[in-house]
Amino acid sequence: MLSRTLKIIKIGGLVLGASLVTLLAVRAYDVQRGPDLQSWHIFVPDELDREQLAKADWDAYLAAEDAVFAQVREEVTDRLEPEAQTPSNRYFQGSPIYPGRFETDWNRSYVLEPAGRPLGAVVFLHGLTDSPYSLRHLARRYRDLGFVAVAPRMPAHGTVPAALTDVEWEDWSEATRLAVREARRRAGPGVPLHIVGFSNGGALAMKYALDAIGDERLEQADRVVLIAPMIGITSFARFAGVFGWPAVLPAFAKASWLGVVPEFNPFKYNSFPINGARQSSLLTRALQQRLKKYAREGRLDELPPVQTFQSVVDFTVSTRAIITSLYANLPANGSELVLFDFNRSAKLGLLIRPGMNTLLTRIMPAPPRNFRTTVITNASSASDEVVERVIEAGSTTERVRSLGLRYPLGVYSLSHLALTFPLSDPLYGMQPDDSEDFGVNLGTLAMRGERGMLIVSQDSLTRIASNPFFPYLLERVEEGIGRGPEQAEVAQRRGAPVGATGMGSTR
C-alpha cells in the first residue's frame, strides 16, 4: 500500500514538473515574439533603499530624487536611438509628452502648503506604475482647506519602467513613513493627520495604520481615505514571479515583463515588469496577515476611521477582498464604504453579463453592519441619473438621495483608473480644460477603426480614465476634513479664507 502511494506521488510530481516545464517553454517562446526591450526597460537608476530611507529626511529624499532623474536623462533621454526619437515616446526630449517640458513635472514628489498656519497634515500615496500626478486634485483641495499636503514619489516610479524590476515593497513602506514625518514636521503638533492612498498606495496607507498600532514610534493617523485600494489582487499576480523564471537566461530577458508597451503616458508607465506585480502581491499578503493578527487580538479598535471609495467592477483590485478582508474586520468606529455601481440602465442591459446583475448582493454582507454603506447607482433602470443609497452603521434602513449626476452617454461603469480624476483633468478627462498642456488628452480618445493600426491595443484606450461622479467623491472627502463654520472661523482668525488657492511649494 505504501509503495503504491509513493508511486502515485512520484507520477504526480513528474506530471506537475512536466507541466511546469511546458508552461515555461511556451512562456519563453511567446515573449520572444514581442517587442524588443528598449533602454527604459533595461537601465535601472539608483534609488534609496529601505535602510537609507529610514535615515533620510525630506530634503535628502528630494536630493536623491534629483540625482535619479539626472541619471535617466543621461542614460536614456540623451542616448536614444534615432528610431526611438518619436512624438509618442515620453523619453524623447522633442516629444510633446516629454515631462521635462512641462511647467511642473508631476512625476516628482511635491508639497502643497496653505496660505496660513496649517490646520492639518495629509500624506498622499499613489499607485503602482503611477506617479504623484494621480492624487493632485485631492491634494489641492486639502491644501485649499488649510492642510499641508505631502505627496511622495514612491521609489522606482516616475522615471523608467525598469526601475520596478529592482524594488521591494518595504522600500515603499519606508518612503510612506518618511512622508508622514515630513507632513507632521511642516504642520506642527496638535493638528489632524490624514493619509490618502490610491490602489497600491491604499495598501501602503492601511499597512502604515496597522504598523502604528504595534509601533509607538509611528504616529497614528486620525483618518485614512482609500481609493480603489489594493487590499487583495488576482491569483495570477500571486504567481506572476513564476512566469519570469526564463529571464535568468539573457536570451529570454523579456520574460521578466508582463507587458512591453510604448511609453506614451507622461505620468504613468505602460510597460509592466513581473516584479511590480510580485511586490504588490507580497504587500497585500503582509497587510492581510497583519489584519488577521490584530483582529484575533482585538486590537483593530485602535484603527482610525477608514473611508473607502471603490468601483463595484474593478479589473485590477478585488472589491470582494476590500469587504471580506478589511471591512468585515473593522470595529464600529465611524468607517464608511462608498461603492460606485455599474450603469444598470436598460439601454445597456442586453450587453451586460448576466452574473453582473447580482454581483453587489453577492459580495456585500446583509445589514446591520459595523460600517456605513453608500452605493451610487441608477435611480431606476429607465434612467442614467444616479442616486445615493445609504445604510448607516448598525441599521437596516436605507436612505435615498438624488445627486443630480448621471452616467455620460455610452459609459457602462467606472474603472480602476478613473476614480481620482475629474472630467476636466487635462490628461485623463473626458472634457479636459485647457489650464495645462501635457501633449495628449488620453481621456477624450474614442477609438474606432481597423485593428492592427495603432501602436497599442484598443483595450488600453477604451477604459474610462475620469470620474463623472468626482464632485461627489470630493464632497464626501471634504466632510471628513471638516469644512464647517468652526473651520471657517479658524481660517478667518489666521487671515486666510477657506478655499485659498495659493500653490505653496511643489517640491
| Rg, nearest Å | 24 Å
Class by helix and strand content?
A: alpha/beta
Number of strands: 12
Instruction: State the domain count.
Output: 2
CATH architecture identity of the largest domain:
3-Layer(aba) Sandwich
The neighbouring-strand order within the major sheet is: 1-3-2-4-5-8-9-10-11-12
Proportion of helical residues: 25-40%
CATH class of the largest domain: Alpha Beta
Oligomerization state of this entry? single chain
Q: Do you know the CATH topology of the largest domain? A: Rossmann fold
Order of helices and strands: HHHHEEHEHEHEHEEHEHEHHEEEHHH
State which percent range the strand residues make up: 5-15%
Instruction: Based on Cα principal axes, name the global outline.
Output: globular
Low-confidence stretches are 19-32, 239-253, 483-505
Overall pLDDT = 85
Straight-line distance between termini: 71 Å
Number of DSSP helices? 15
* Major sheet summary line: 10 strands, mixed
Q: What is the CATH homologous superfamily assignment of the largest domain?
A: Alpha/Beta hydrolase fold, catalytic domain
